[in-house]
């Protein structure tokens, strides 16, 4: 998607690149340098220009030109070095937008790799060049390419790992030329100053190769420039990473490195860095490193132990979590039940309100219909009765409201009164219990001695009582007569009690029989449902009872079948005479109740 508001210079340049032949494209792309240099650094206009350059694929054109053979490019290495500057400046500070993934994963690594390839080509040309002026020009171009690469890595530090792992970079580092080697070491030092953490992320074999090359240049190169740069680089690597310091101190590949460093000339410019490096490789520093390593190991063991304890505690907390979940779910269920109950109550209240409205509407309709029925003269009386009833209802509600209000106002005093009563009762119980304990555990006072005056007083009281209640004197004959009378009365009582018990048992048997007969009559079928054997269950063996039942039955039939004019003078309680010949029937067929006939 092309951006809106594109710079016209970029538009014309993109159109010119698209229309021009392939050999003229590098020279046309050099115009981007003028556009970038004329724009203030760090401004929003510069960011917009870089986005336009990326959107119109001018950066991709620069990459394609850099991947070509330099001998076929118009302007040679001069054009190539300027294009590397343009490419690095365009990629740093660029916000790709929607194509961010393609920009960071494909374009940037490809640009860094092209810079390294150009560096190797320049290295080869520099070694093969014969003239001094040509070598100076090639060295200048090499420095421009390395500066462009460093500028690109400064803006995108994630490319440092790719550059350090590249074979082209390792070949550049392994050169024997002093000037090229110094430039590469300086670039490596600058890169590690930006982000030295990527040094440990590369493969161990590549890391060993870089260390070997740096140590080799430090010990075997006669140039003090390379030796100074290698010393600073090795010191930076050892100070930044303890792992590299341990590797230099313990690895068999670097055995004797400290003794070789001690043989270096002390009067050089880098003697201070050299002494620092020797101090790091000394046994004392090694002991500090070893102690730090032990400290890290102890921390690691503690971390594993604490992790084990934490996992063990978490396993035990599983039951607690289950309990918490159960309580939460029960609370949530209660809350949902409460909400549903409130909803049901609200629905019930609305239904009651609707029912009241319907009842009120119905009562009004009934009242209106009754007013239509009532005589016009009675309407005033009817209204007065309704008003009196309404007034009574209003008074009743008002009195109820007033009494409830008074009761609510008196409730605190009633509560206080009840509390006072309870406190008094408890206090009295406590005091009574205390007095009882006091009496129970009090010592026995003993008997008081009677004085002569007290004895005379007690004797006078006894004499007065005997005088007021004289005893009766009965002879032996009278006592025997009274005893015989008492024995007769007692015998008569026991005999009468036996007869009374038999009569009571008989009455209870009759009551049980009557209850059975009543229950049988209650469970008897109706006349429509009765079968042939059902009446036999209700035959009676008592002739007086059967006769009385027959008489009552015939009286009822006669009274029902008599004409109306015969009932004019009768009353409800009059008896009806029944002839005796009508009673001469078989009494065993009467419905009287009782047991079955034998």
Automatic annotation (TrEMBL):
This is IQ calmodulin-binding motif-containing protein 1. GO terms for biological process: cilium assembly. InterPro entries: ARM-type_fold, IQ_motif_EF-hand-BS, IQCB1, P-loop_NTPase. GO terms for cellular component: cilium. It comes from the Eukaryota. It comes from Muntiacus muntjak (Barking deer). GO terms for molecular function: calmodulin binding. SUPFAM superfamilies: ARM repeat, P-loop containing nucleoside triphosphate hydrolases. Coiled coil: none annotated.
């Amino acid at each position: 998607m092309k951006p809106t508001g594109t710079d016209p210079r970029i538009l014309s340049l993109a159109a010119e690149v698209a229309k021009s032949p392939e050999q003229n494209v590098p020279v046309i792309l050099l115009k981007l340098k003028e556009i970038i240099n004329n724009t203030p650094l760090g401004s929003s206009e510069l960011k917009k220009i870089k986005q336009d350059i990326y959107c119109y694929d001018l950066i991709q054109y620069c990459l394609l030109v850099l991947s070509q053979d330099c001998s076929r490019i118009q302007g040679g290495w001069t054009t190539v070095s300027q294009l590397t500057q343009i490419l690095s400046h365009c990629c740093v500070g660029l916000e790709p937008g929607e194509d961010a993934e393609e920009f960071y994963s494909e374009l940037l690594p490809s640009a860094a790799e092209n810079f390294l390839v150009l560096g190797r080509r320049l290295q080869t040309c520099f070694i093969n060049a014969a003239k001094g002026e040509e070598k100076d020009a090639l060295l200048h171009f090499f420095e421009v390419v390395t500066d462009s690469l460093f500028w690109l890595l400064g803006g995108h530090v994630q490319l440092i790992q790719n550059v350090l792992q590249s074979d082209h970079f390792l070949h550049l580092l392994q050169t024997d030329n002093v000037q090229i080697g110094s430039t590469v070491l300086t670039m490596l030092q600058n890169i590690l100053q930006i982000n030295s953490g990527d040094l440990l992320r590369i493969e161990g074999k590549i890391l060993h190769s870089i260390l070997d090359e740096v140590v080799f240049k430090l010990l075997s190169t006669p140039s003090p420039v390379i030796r100074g740069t290698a010393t600073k680089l090795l010191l930076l690597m050892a100070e930044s990473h303890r792992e590299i310091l341990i590797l230099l101190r313990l690895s068999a590949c670097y055995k004797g490195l400290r003794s070789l460093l001690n043989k270096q000339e002390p009067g050089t410019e880098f003697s201070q860095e050299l002494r620092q490096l020797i101090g790091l490789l000394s046994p004392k520093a090694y002991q500090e490193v070893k102690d730090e390593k032990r400290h890290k190991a102890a921390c690691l063991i503690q971390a594993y132990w604490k992790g084990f304890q934490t996992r063990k505690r978490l396993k035990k907390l599983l039951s607690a979590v289950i309990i918490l979940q159960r309580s939460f779910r029960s609370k949530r269920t209660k809350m949902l039940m409460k909400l549903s109950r409130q909803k049901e109550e609200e629905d019930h209240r609305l239904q009651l309100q609707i029912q009241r409205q319907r009842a009120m509407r119905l009562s009004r309709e009934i009242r209106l219909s009754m007013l239509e029925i009532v005589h016009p003269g009675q309407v005033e009386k009817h209204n007065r009765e309704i008003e009196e009833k309404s007034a009574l209802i209003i008074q009743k509600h008002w009195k109820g409201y007033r009494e409830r209000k008074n009761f609510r106002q008196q409730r605190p005093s009633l509560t206080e009164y009840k509390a006072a009563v309870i406190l008094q009762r408890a206090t009295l119980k406590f005091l009574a219990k205390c007095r009882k304990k006091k009496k129970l555990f009090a010592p026995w006072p003993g008997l008081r001695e009677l004085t002569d005056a007290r004895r005379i007083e007690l004797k006078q009281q006894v004499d007065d009582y005997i005088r007021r209640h004289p005893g009766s004197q009965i002879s032996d004959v009278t006592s025997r007569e009274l005893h015989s009378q008492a024995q007769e009365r007692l015998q008569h009582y026991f005999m009468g009690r036996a007869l009374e018990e038999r009569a009571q048992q008989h009455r209870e048997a009759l009551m049980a029989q009557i209850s059975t007969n009543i229950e049988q009559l209650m469970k008897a079928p109706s006349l429509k449902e009765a079968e042939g054997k059902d009446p036999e269950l209700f035959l009676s063996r008592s002739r007086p009872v059967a006769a009385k039942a027959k008489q009552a039955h015939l009286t009822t039939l006669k009274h029902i079948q008599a004409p109306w004019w015969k009932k004019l003078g009768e009353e409800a309680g009059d008896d009806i005479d029944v002839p005796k010949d009508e009673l001469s029937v078989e009494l065993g067929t009467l419905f009287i109740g009782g047991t079955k006939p034998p």
